[in-house]
What we know:
By secondary structure, this protein is of the alpha/beta class. The protein folds into two domains: 2-136, Cytidine Deaminase, domain 2, CATH 3.40.140; 146-363, Dihydrofolate Reductase, subunit A, CATH 3.40.430. Helix content is 29%, strand content 23%. It has a nine-stranded mixed β-sheet with strand order 11-10-9-8-12-6-13-16-15, with helices on both faces. A five-stranded mixed β-sheet has the order 2-1-3-4-5, sandwiched between helices. Helix 10 (251-259) links the parallel strand 10 (241-245) and strand 11. Helix 3 packs parallel to helix 4 (109-116). The model has no long low-confidence stretch (mean pLDDT 94). Bound molecules: NADP nicotinamide-adenine-dinucleotide phosphate. The site of NADP nicotinamide-adenine-dinucleotide phosphate (NAP) has 31 residues, from strand 6, strand 7, strand 8, helix 8 and helix 12.
Amino acid sequence: MTNIFMQEALALAAQGVALASPNPMVGAVIVTDGVVVGRGSYRYAGVTHAEILALREAGEQARGGTMYVSLEPHAHTGRTTPCTDAIIAAGIVKIVAASLDPNPLVAGAGFTQLREAGIVVEIASEFQAEAEKLNEAFFHFMRTGRPLVMLKSALTLDGKIAAPEDNTGWITSERARAHVQLLRHASDAIVTGIGTALADDPLLTDRLGTPRTRPLLRVVLDSTLRLPLESKLVKSAQGDLIVVATTAASAERRRALEARGVEVKTLDGPRGRVDIRDVVSMLGERCCLSVMIEAGSKVNWAALESGAVDKVFLYYAPKILGGVQSLPMAGGTGRLRRADAIVLERTQLHVIPPDEFAVEAYVRRDA
Ligand SMILES: NC(=O)c1ccc[n+]([C@@H]2O[C@H](COP(=O)([O-])OP(=O)(O)OC[C@H]3O[C@@H](n4cnc5c(N)ncnc54)[C@H](OP(=O)(O)O)[C@@H]3O)[C@@H](O)[C@H]2O)c1
């Protein structure tokens, strides 16, 4: 039975995509005498935690019950009072949790308090990987202090992202692009380069059509502020567009962009360009847990080379462009020896019927 109830708790947690950040997604289910008597799913804007919502729904029926929760309940006072206190007061006798909270303010303290109050605490280790994957950006942020950076690209089978002449239309299908919208929806920020902004005039918005707590923050790396004032990005700016330049950018361009509601930041980096690692840190300071890079060849390589990229999501179309002039996914100088290649691990294949697939993989960090 644990399976069914924990699966429901995880499904409730997953309802928090784009709604729980910068906090983790959490779902809770209370079961008394084999019957579900309370359910909760956390939303940042709603403030109240999943455990409390489930307790409220259960009322007196919570007494003697078991709570299945996707993440360890917290024992400290933050925006809310400790969930552990409420769980103890409600007479819950057993907690089954899928993962430990990596937040140093929690990190086992929730379980300790519950055990000290006589509550049985069990870790459903068979669900741990799924629970951590669901909240991977939150876990990453808590462990490293930095957002999880994902590089997404749409490629031909031979690894090209753009053709030298006619670049209209898409490489991948509508189905693959719908999948990308899910990734955008789950991200707090999206980063592109001025090369892409000029070539494609993209909007870079979340068009999934389901609510999100905070707008998707759109970021353009543009050392000298070449972004046209009439671009779709600028025209659609509503406090959600940051253009990052270097000190080489003109004050006049800056003022023109700012007058249209664009925020302009200066972050000098190597070779007279924007410092990508600093961009990621800046987004972390704004409580972005997850950052998606959807850029061209130059920014893709610069981001990989800087060590800022944590994972990739590469969509492959069954096409071959060939030619040395077609842009590769990652340009620049690349690594000059095979032995120095950037290595990925934990590779997962996503099949996109009928003929496409995506590769999700994590950059290996050598100890
Ligand atoms: N298939 C796909 O998934 C996909 C996705 C996106 C784009 N594209 C294609 O990619 C092509 C554009 O590629 P691209 O390489 O020209 O553009 P890009 O990588 O998007 O942008 C490159 C520009 O970004 C600026 N930049 C600022 N900081 C940088 C840094 N630290 N490192 C590198 N660049 C930095 C530089 O211009 P400044 O020196 O002026 O700052 C640079 O020229 C277009 O044809 C587009 O259609 C394809």
